[in-house]
Amino acid sequence: MSETKKIDPRTLKRRDAMVEAARELFCQHGLAGTTLEMITAEAGGSRRTIYELFGNKDGVFEAVIRDCTGRVTSAMSGLEMTDLPLREALIHYGETLMTLLTMPDTIRYMRLFLAEVPRFPKLGKVFYESGLMTGRRFIAAYFERQMAEGTFPKGDAQQAAVFFASLVKADYDIRQMSYIDWEPQAKDLHGHVTAAVDMFLRGYGIGPETASE
Q1: What does the alpha-carbon distance between residue 170 and residue 71 come to, in Å, rounded to a whole number?
Q2: Checking CA distances to 17, which of 91, 118, 189, 208 falls within 20 to 30 Å?
């Protein structure tokens, strides 16, 4: 039972507590090493509550995935880019994205999810669709608007979103997942994102000076 049902505030609070407790327990012990008893010991409630709210432990894991990816995508979807010049808007988006993706907690959750995907391919799809694709749809819609307004060359907005995200992400996520305790600094992210944005714009025949107007 992955989606939040219409439940009373007290039960909803208990559900949120279970998701929060499960998230930390899954990170520490993995999905297989976490029991329902461990979750209820941390969050309160009972196995029956878990069954009613989530169906089973896999349902709890799916809820954790949706909660973690939802935090990232809600932050991205709330970005105000409409009134910014093209280059400034893309830098703003890129810095926000990279700040979120390189946070220690984000890396912990990504390690957890990717470790469990082979055993739960359905949840891998949930992770991909509710996380990566949500952000990509947001920036693709932005490119579509810029194309309609004439500030970006007309073409495939989805492909532009893929190219842009790939340049901005580079190898930061893989490097951070591999290099334990390595964390990029804000100035490094700013320099990287700015260079990626300028390279992206030049690839579409737009000079950084033009895109700053």
Answers
A1: 22
A2: 118
What is the per-residue pLDDT across 165-178, written as a single tens digit (0 to 9) for each? 999 999 888 888 88
Type of residue numbered 145: R
Q: Which pTM value belongs to this model? A: 0.81
User: Residue 40: CB partners within 8 Å, gap ≥ 6?
Assistant: 18, 46, 47, 49, 50
Q: Which two tokens stand for residue 69?
A: 């990816």
CA gap 213, 208 in Å, rounded: 9
On whether the CB atoms of residues 212 and 88 are closer than 8 A, the answer is: yes
Q: What is the pLDDT of residues 47-72, one digit of tens each?
A: 999 999 999 998 999 899 888 888 87
Cα separation values, 119 from 30, 32, 35, 174, Å: 12, 10, 17, 21
Reply yes or no on whether the pLDDT at 46 is more than 80.
yes
Residue 109 reports pLDDT greater than 90? no
